[in-house]
Amino acid sequence: MRVTNVLMAGVGGQGIIMASDILSRLMLIAGLDVKKSEVHGMAQRGGSVTCHVRFGPHVFSPLIKQGEVDILMAFEKMEALRYLYYLRTGARVLLNDLEISPPSVCLGKESYPGGIPDLIHERGMRLLMIPGLTLARQAGNIRAANVVLLGVLSTWLDVEEGYWTEAIESSFPRRLVSINLEAFRLGRAAGIQAS
After folding, report:
1. Mean pLDDT across the stretch 78-104?
2. Any idea where the domains of the chain sit in the sequence?
3. Which of 46, 76, 130, 167 could make an S-S bridge to 25, C-beta 3.0–4.6 Å?
4. Three-class SS of the chain
5. Assigned fold of 4-194
């Protein structure tokens, strides 16, 4: 088994760091070596946030080199575009169907780029775009979109579903566990349906 490289990218406040914590905890439960790195930037002001998560039998560095990402989890469309150069040929992209306009777009100085899914396809990446916010709303809380994305990711990784449940249950206060388990279930169902 080789090391798997997952890059999570999005905007501050989307729960990217929590998602990376859950994925890291999951892989430890599954008995793998895990390394993780976070870059917050101006996260509190809606800036870019990335997390590198690497897991396998032996992982020596938390950082993923450019051109070696196996899976990009993009919590926002433009963030997917920003990190495409990190992906290896044939990598998978899990794209949340969400656009958050940066200040330059809000002020009318620039326009939000169009055709992002097409650009990803043109680069030869395997893309799955899902309505994370809609599914999180169905689960009971739009803030659970990060766990919806993890649910989809679970269909791409060979890890027992029970380990995912354990990782989620141990990551949230008791009052938030059922909503997040439902968000995971809805994301997993969307991933299975898309495959």
Report:
1. 92
2. 4-194
3. 167
4. CCCEEEEEEEECCCCHHHHHHHHHHHHHHCCCEEEEEEECCCHHHCCEEEEEEEEECCCCCCCCCCCCEEEEEECCHHHHHHCHHHEEEEEEEEEECCCCCCHHHHCCCCCCCCCHHHHHHHCCCEEEEECHHHHHHHHCCHHHHHHHHHHHHHCCCCCCHHHHHHHHHCCCCHHHHHHHHHHHHHHHHHHHHHC
5. Pyruvate-ferredoxin Oxidoreductase; domain 3 (3.40.920)
